[in-house]
């Protein structure tokens, strides 16, 4: 599968993940949950969907269509670092400018993290 096709699929699936993650974050914080917990729950929701979609469809050719425990282990490591960065960003945004600002910052910061996520996914997670 060529890089252009993988990039397009990763973008499409990434947008779906981003929406799922963001909606969970907004809903949970709206009902009073703290930003750290809400962000982690939102990221888990998006990650579960993204791991499967990208593993089967975006990078499926490199995995022969089969997701193995090694893929999951590498994905969890990558997810841990990106989740920590995202949580730090939304927590900082919330503490400096308030919750509504954190709602606005989250999708933009997570989109930036997705660029790194694509590279890590292509060359490390799903290899």
Roughly how many Å apart are the termini? 13 Å
Shape from CA axes?
elongated
Rg, rounded, reads: 15 Å
| Parts with pLDDT < 50 across at least 5 consecutive residues | none
Count the beta strands. Answer: 0
The succession of helices and strands, N to C, reads: HHHH
Largest sheet: none
Tell me the strand percentage band: under 5%
Number of helical regions: 4
Structural class, by secondary structure, is mainly alpha
> Whole-number average pLDDT?
92
- Helix proportion: over 70%
How would you briefly describe this protein structure?
With 127 residues, this protein is mainly alpha-helical.
What would you say this structure looks like, in words?
This protein is mainly α. Helix content is 85%, strand content 0%. Helix 1 (3-30) packs antiparallel against helix 4 and helix 2 runs antiparallel to helix 3. The protein is elongated. It starts with a helix and ends with a helix. The model has no long low-confidence stretch (mean pLDDT 92).
Protein traits:
127 residues
List the helices and strands and how they pair.
Elements lengths: L2 H28 L4 H24 L10 H29 L1 H27 L2
Helix pairs in contact: 1-2, 1-4, 2-3, 3-4
């Amino acid at each position: 599968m060529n890089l252009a096709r993988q990039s397009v699929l990763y973008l499409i699936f990434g947008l779906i993940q981003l929406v799922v993650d963001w909606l969970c974050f907004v809903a949970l914080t709206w009902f009073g949950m703290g930003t750290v917990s809400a962000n982690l729950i939102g990221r888990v929701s998006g990650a579960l969907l993204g791991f499967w979609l990208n593993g089967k469809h975006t990078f499926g050719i490199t995995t022969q269509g089969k997701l193995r425990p090694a893929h999951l282990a590498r994905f969890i490591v990558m997810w841990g670092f990106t989740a920590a960065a995202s949580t730090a960003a939304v927590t900082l945004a919330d503490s400096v400018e308030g919750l509504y600002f954190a709602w606005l910052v989250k999708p933009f910061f997570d989109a930036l993290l997705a660029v790194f996520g694509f590279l890590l996914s292509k060359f490390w997670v799903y290899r």
